[in-house]
Design a protein that fits this description.
The chain is an alpha/beta fold and 506 residues long. It contains 15 helices and 15 strands. A hairpin with a 3-residue loop joins strand 11 and strand 12 (253-260).
Length: 506
């Protein structure tokens, strides 16, 4: 049980700055001057629904006004559980190429959701790190990829180089100009990659199929091309029919869901009745500015503006020609540790923390984004033994901090996590409202599953549990009689591409 230390103004202000103000539904109350008073939690969550209404307006604006930045449509994948088959899967990420063989068994008679995961077998998987100097998508890269495909096939016996046709699913972590569920032109990349002139604007499906035929005489059929966010949805929806939303929450933040297109701008319908929407969630959250503080302003000075000259989910920032990602800055795994570090440094500079210690300017604690790691933040959050946290600080920073300072650090970490989890809950509630609005979904009394991937969600148990708490204590969710839960989707980039290939095969 954590008790508050005797505290003066600067510490109280630093903690309070990391919390929501009382009129905005405070996850944590400010530190008390009473040593024996526990850190209290406010249970009034009514404003979560209000914030989610504002976010819902922005989500709908992006859909109806044809934002080129967000709410990007992909061809719908709605697995029923009947999907099966043997597939080669390619997953190209920021720095890795993964190739796997996946065998999805046919369902047994009377099978329910609980047994679907048992039918998915990743027979074989190989991974290659792509160095920065090799991040060029040209014809040579497709030759390299083809050689690794053959290498992977020869390592197992589920599919063979002698097969008439090898069915393929691709998770492609870069935007494509998609023309169908299994083809798209290669015109955009990121994460340090470039496109060769010989490949630019070429169709991914055609290039890979032709290269495999020319180089190895193998016939492959690319059945689906999806991005990593959509892969989470496809995999999760196969594993449980209760999945409604997919979430990627690691260093970044994104969510996707399936929506009917009746109220969409025509350019976002893909001439389909329903599409999968890759929301680019990080761009949303302009209505959450009242939850921010001086530490957020240090992350991005645009948080300190009293007026919003542009809508991040609709357009670039004209002043800087850059994107703005408010919800990601508040709640993702890259920024939570940095917010904590900034608060610690402020307290240190105000002589409110580590006052009896000499912290040299060369200490990594003063290094932006590397000074307080996500691993350390997770350890402090999950650990209840003060002596273990003290020992961790000796290991990380070579400083022996006092018990009082240790408790202050833990309170800072808890405050950052509470505000972040509150923010994620607001976004999830907004997406549930979006599903009800566009799909006329009847989720009264239903279990709603949000499938997720991302290290912060996997390892930060307190963060994950706090998100669930804030969602289910929202008056909106209570009013529906629904229960929302989070579900980890393992190997989503591999399984999702295989499920997508099976879905379109059938």
């Amino acid at each position: 049980m954590i008790h508050t230390a005797q505290s003066s103004g600067p510490l109280t202000n630093a903690i309070s700055d990391l919390e929501l103000k009382s009129e905005l539904e405070v996850p944590y109350s400010p530190i008390s001057d009473n040593n024996d008073q526990e850190l209290q939690i406010s249970e009034d969550e009514s404003n979560a629904s209000s914030y989610s209404d504002g976010l819902l307006e922005d989500l709908n604006e992006a859909l109806t006004e044809n934002s080129v930045m967000s709410m990007l449509p992909s061809f719908n994948i709605n697995p029923t559980g009947s999907e099966h088959g043997k597939f080669l899967v390619i997953d190209l990420g920021g720095s890795t190429l993964r190739i796997a063989v996946v065998d999805i068994k046919a369902p047994a008679a009377g099978e329910n959701d609980e047994h679907r995961a048992d039918r998915v077998n990743i027979v074989n998987e190989n991974k290659w790190i792509v160095s920065n100097k090799d991040k060029l998508i040209d014809q040579n890269f497709f030759r390299f990829m083809s050689s690794k495909i053959v290498e992977t096939i020869k390592d197992q016996s589920t599919i063979s180089v002698s097969d008439d046709v090898i069915n393929v699913g691709i998770t492609w972590s870069f935007p494509l100009t998609q023309v169908s569920h299994n083809s798209g032109r290669i015109v955009h990349v990121g994460k340090g990659w470039k496109i060769g002139d010989d490949i630019y604007d070429k169709d991914l499906k055609a290039v890979l199929e032709t290269t495999m035929q020319q180089e190895y005489g193998l016939t492959i059929d690319v059945r689906v091309v999806i991005n990593d966010s959509i892969a989470v949805y496809a995999a999760g929806k196969f594993l449980t029919s209760h999945l409604k939303i997919a979430m990627v929450l690691g260093t970044g933040f994104n969510m996707s869901c399936s929506l009917k297109t009746g109220q969409f701008h025509s350019a976002k319908t893909l001439n389909e009745d329903a599409v999968l929407v890759n929301s680019e969630t990080s761009l949303f959250g302009s209505n959450l500015f009242r939850l921010t503080n001086e530490f957020d302003h240090s992350i991005d000075s645009r948080f300190s503006r009293t007026e919003r000259p542009f809508k991040a989910h609709m357009t670039f920032d004209g002043a800087t020609d850059s994107i703005f990602q408010p919800s990601e800055f508040i709640a993702s795994g890259r920024y939570l540790p940095e917010l904590t570090r900034l608060a610690i440094v402020k307290l240190l500079n105000n002589n409110e923390m580590f006052r009896d210690l000499t912290i040299p300017p060369s200490s990594k604690l003063f290094t932006a984004y590397d000074g307080f790691s996500s691993e350390l933040m997770c350890f402090v959050s999950e650990q209840t033994d003060i002596s273990m946290i003290k020992a961790k600080f000796v290991e990380e920073f070579n400083i022996d901090i006092s018990n009082n300072d240790t408790m202050k650090v833990k309170q800072l970490v808890d405050s950052v996590i509470q505000r972040g989890s509150y923010t994620i809950a607001i976004v999830v509630i907004a997406f549930i409202k979006l599903l009800v609005m566009h799909n006329r979904e009847n989720i009264v009394g239903e279990e709603v599953i949000v499938g997720y991937v991302g290290s912060i969600m996997v390892y930060f148990n307190n963060y994950r549990n706090s998100i669930i708490k804030y969602i289910n204590e929202s008056p909106y969710i209570k009013g529906l009689g629904a229960t929302v839960d989070l579900m980890s989707i393992d190997d989503s980039s591999i399984v999702g591409a295989a499920v997508g290939a099976a879905y379109f095969q059938s």
